Amino acid sequence: MLYNPLTCKLEQVVDLAHEDRVLVDALCSEDVTEVGAKRDIVRNGEVPDKVHLILEGWAARYTVLPDGSRQITAFLIPGDFCDLHVDILEKMDHAIGALTPCRVAHLDPEVLERITSERTALTKGLWRMTLIDSAVLREWIVNVGRRDAYEAVAHILCEMHLRMKAVGLVEDDTFSLPITQEELADATGMTAVHINRTLKRLRSEGLVEQHHREMTVLDVGGLREAGGFNDDYLHLRQSRRGRGHPA
Fold first, then answer.
1. Which helix or strand (DSSP H or E) is residue 227 part of?
2. 3-state DSSP assignment of residue 220
3. Distance between CA 143 and CA 141 in Å, rounded?
């Protein structure tokens, strides 16, 4: 594979040898399917026999409440696993839905387990990715529970900007943001009307610019200040280097 988002993401948290990259490329190219937008990749209650990895497109973790409303608990982008340890938990307790058309790699859990048992760096990298996913969820809980709309939306935009940058999908602070205002509302526990007003305010203050499905961060420092954003929870090497830490 010429471009592998999983390799990009792993190299943000661990050093990979050439053999590690070759194994990851092979793992991600053996069984790949296309999933249409608004379709489930994995359903709630399902017992998947494969581990699913997003190669292209955006997806979301979500739960549907008895009244039919939806809470999105994570946005998944290229390089993100949908269900890395589902073979341990036996079945899904939430759903993964494609927000856009997605290319999804289906990984054999037994092959993945064998490779990680032989390659220490890959084991360490996958565990770090899992722990970072938990850290992201904690920040999202703070978004829903304590940050107001302005802070919460600014925080999510800062996060997605950095996460997309980590997998090489940001150019001149512009990145694809193919989610609707309704989906952003479902991620923050707000209404689409409130999200619309908040995005207008961020644009009017010169912090961001949005054209169709692309978002440009015009003032990175200003957007971080608006969201009270500290990227420590993402544990990205590019961020540590920017603060003078060793790579």
1. helix 220-227
2. helix
3. 5
Do 108 and 214 share a domain, yes or no? no
Helix and strand counts by DSSP (H, E) for the chain = 10, 11
**CATH number of the domain encompassing residue 114:** 2.60.120.10
Pairwise CA distance, residues 157 & 154, whole Å? 5
Residue from 223, 106, 212, 80 nearest 155 by CA? 223
Q: What angle do CA 191, 204, 159 make, to 5 degrees?
A: 60
Tokens of 30: 């053996």
Burial 26-41 (b: 16+ CB within 10 A, else e): ebbeeeeeebeeeeeb
CA 122 to chain centre: 19
Beta-ladder partners of 97 = 40, 60
82, 115, 119, 117: which is closest to 97 by C-alpha? 82
pLDDT digit string (tens) for 65-117?
A: 999 999 999 999 999 999 887 777 778 999 999 999 999 999 998 888 898 88
Count up the domains in the chain and report the number: 2
Tell me if the pTM is above 0.90: yes
155 plus 213 within the same structural domain: yes
At 174-209, the pLDDT tens digits run 999 999 999 999 999 999 999 999 999 999 999 999
CA distance linking residue 151 with residue 230, whole number of Å: 12
Sign of the dihedral through C-alpha 9, 15, 18, 20: negative
